[in-house]
Amino acid sequence: MNPKRGPSSLATPAGMAPGWVDARPWNTIPAGIGNILSGALAVACIFGCALRPMEGT
Predict the structure, then answer these.
(1) Which of 16, 36, 38, 43 could join 11 in a cystine, given CB atoms 3.0 to 4.6 angstroms apart?
(2) pTM score, two decimals?
(3) Separation between Cα atoms, residue 32 and residue 39, nearest integer Å
(4) CA distance linking residue 11 with residue 7, whole number of Å
(5) Is 40 helix (H, G, I), strand (E, B) or coil?
């Protein structure tokens, strides 16, 4: 990513861009929540498959 571009770079010339300080929480909070939920689901599926009792034993 070009460091000269900020969030909403098309709105920057018009002075309507939110800036990095305002835009960062709007990106990191939903991404963090999504990563936590999907990571928990992935770990639960892996452990569920690994610890499932084998049939016929």
Answers:
(1) 16
(2) 0.56
(3) 10
(4) 9
(5) helix
